[in-house]
Amino acid sequence: MAKRGKLFVLTGPSGAGKGTILEHILKAAPNLFLSVSATTRAPRAGEQEGIHYFFLSREAFEERVKQGDFLEYAEYVGNYYGTLEKPVDERLDEGYDVILEIEVQGAMQIHQKRPDAVLVFVAPPSMEELSRRLYGRGTEDAQERERRLQTAEHEMTYKDSFDYIVTNEVLERAVGDLLAIFRAERCRNNPRQIQGEGNTQC
Ligand code: 5GP
């Protein structure tokens, strides 16, 4: 049976660059699967069902909460976002590593429920820069952007609760830091590696 994979969580405020970092990481880490979340937020232009998110109505989301289908979920700026537990565990059981890209409340739930998960907080270099990035990407209207910025102030106060903090000032550097974290975590407490049997992951 395959050795169970590791669960990684990328968290931090909207606009810090989690998604962009992740795009680079996924290209460089073939054993890593990105979990597709469910949300009640409306799809943005170009977003596809089952690829970017599973888009659910509020009712359908709440029904799945009742069924106990979520590993974690949270309400963020007026919408629900959640990670479906079954697909994550299936991948982990197959021996793949899985990464979640989620906001801070959900990450704290994972911290409680899955103490083995590795949690990485992606921080912006400053709140001014965060605001500039949210403006620049143009995916939210002014009111939504303001709510995300207010939420970000609150989320920043949790940053010390996580295993690692990566400041995304220069993208290549943040990607490099994260790849180093993954590599180190895969080698952690690996008896085969210690016994010198060799493991290409390390
Ligand atoms: P967006 O609307 O920009 O796609 O996502 C808003 C926030 O929700 C981001 O911080 C994103 O990381 C987070 N998010 C996405 N999926 C999930 C999820 O499954 N659970 C939680 N708790 N947050 C999520």
Q: Spell out the helices and strands N to C.
A: EHEEEHEEHEHEHHEHH
Provide the residue-averaged pLDDT: 92
- Counting DSSP E segments of at least 2 residues, the number of strands comes to 9
In whole angstroms, the N-to-C terminal distance is: 20 Å
Percent in helix: 40-55%
Uncertain parts? none
Q: Oligomeric status of the shown chains?
A: single chain
Major sheet: arrangement of strands: 2-7-1-8-9
Count, helices: 8
Q: Estimate the strand proportion.
A: 15-25%
Largest sheet: 5 strands, parallel
Shape: globular
Bound molecules: guanosine-5'-monophosphate
Which structural class best describes the helix and strand composition? alpha/beta
Quick recap:
This protein has helices at 18-28, 58-66, 85-93, 104-113, 127-137, 142-156, 171-187, 191-194, and strands at 7-11, 32-34, 38-39, 54-55, 70-76, 79-84, 97-101, 118-123, 164-167.
Outline the structure in words.
The chain has 202 residues and is an alpha/beta fold. Helix content is 43%, strand content 20%. The protein has a 5-stranded parallel sheet with strand order 2-7-1-8-9, with helices on both faces. Strands 4-3-6-5 form a 4-stranded mixed sheet. It is globular. The model has no long low-confidence stretch (mean pLDDT 92). Guanosine-5'-monophosphate (5GP) binds at residues 14, 18, 37, 41, 72, 74, 76, 81-83, 101-103, 105-106.
